[in-house]
């Protein structure tokens, strides 16, 4: 059985005929990360595929990133709960894990581990939906949020607080910022 696939590549459109089996094999080889394959298999990426021969490319499909942000915004006001990752409460990494799980991505429940597995990116290249990391205590990453763009991020900040939006320009966050990473 053949299916027509439209691939948007660097602004050009190429139409290609593929068998269902060859389509999966091709994208498993060409997609630049396991996240791409997972999103493709789960039907989240259906028409537009962002791929490259370069291993440093991340998903930049604005629809996916916008969906992640919109999902995260639904939880503003949910209480911080240490070690939790549910609608009843989140700690910072639990919040990230919960939001991304809604898009088929299974992430660890640890800020430091999220930092280690993410693709580190320059501040100037950070996009909405990327992760933002902080060292707030000790020598390892101890806090994570989801970047919204315009120096804003959403996170579950700590005991006695709720999921909220904060500015990276705030003195506390500017002082503890370590960098950005992508799991997409």
**Can you list the strand order of the major beta sheet?**
5-10-6-7-8-9
Number of strands: 10
CATH class of the largest domain: Alpha Beta
Tell me the name of the CATH homologous superfamily of the largest domain: endopeptidase domain like (from Nostoc punctiforme)
SSE series: EEHHHEEHHEEEEEHE
Largest sheet: 6 strands, antiparallel
| Whole-angstrom Rg | 18 Å
Low-pLDDT segments, ≥5 res:
1-32, 44-58
List keywords for this structure.
single chain, 184 residues, alpha+beta, endopeptidase fold (from Nostoc punctiforme), 2 domains, six-stranded antiparallel sheet, two-stranded antiparallel sheet, 6 helices, disordered N terminus
Give structural notes.
There is one protein chain. The chain is an alpha+beta fold and 184 residues long. Mean pLDDT is 77; it is low at 1-32 and 44-58. The longest helix is centred in the middle third of the chain and has 12 residues, at 62-73. Strands 5-10-6-7-8-9 form a six-stranded antiparallel sheet. It is globular. It is built from six helices and ten strands; from the N terminus they run ββαααββααβββββαβ. A hairpin with an 8-residue loop joins strand 8 and strand 9. It folds into two domains: 2-41, no CATH class; 62-182, endopeptidase domain like (from Nostoc punctiforme) (endopeptidase fold (from Nostoc punctiforme), Alpha-Beta Complex), CATH 3.90.1720.10. The chain is 29% helix and 26% strand. It starts with a strand and ends with a strand.
Question: Brief overview, please?
Answer:
With 184 residues, this protein is of the alpha+beta class. The chain is 29% helix and 26% strand. The longest helix is centred in the middle third of the chain and has 12 residues, at 62-73.
């Amino acid at each position: 059985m053949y299916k027509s696939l439209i691939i948007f590549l660097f602004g050009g459109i190429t139409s290609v005929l593929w068998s269902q089996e060859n389509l999966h094999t091709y994208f498993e080889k060409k997609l630049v990360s396991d996240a791409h394959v997972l999103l493709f298999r789960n039907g989240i990426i259906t028409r537009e595929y962002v791929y490259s021969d370069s291993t440093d490319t991340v998903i930049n499909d604005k629809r996916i990133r916008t969906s992640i942000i919109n999902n995260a915004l639904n939880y503003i006001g949910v209480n911080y709960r240490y070690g939790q990752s549910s609608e009843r409460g989140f700690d910072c990494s639990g919040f990230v894990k919960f939001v991304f799980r809604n898009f088929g991505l299974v992430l660890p429940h640890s800020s430091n581990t999220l930092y280690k597995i993410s693709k580190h990116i320059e501040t100037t290249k950070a996009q909405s939906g990327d992760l933002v990391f902080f060292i707030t205590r000790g020598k390892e990453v101890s806090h994570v949020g989801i970047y919204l763009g315009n120096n804003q991020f959403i996170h579950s900040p700590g005991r006695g607080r709720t999921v909220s939006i904060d500015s990276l320009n705030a003195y506390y966050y500017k002082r503890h910022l370590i960098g950005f990473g992508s799991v997409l």
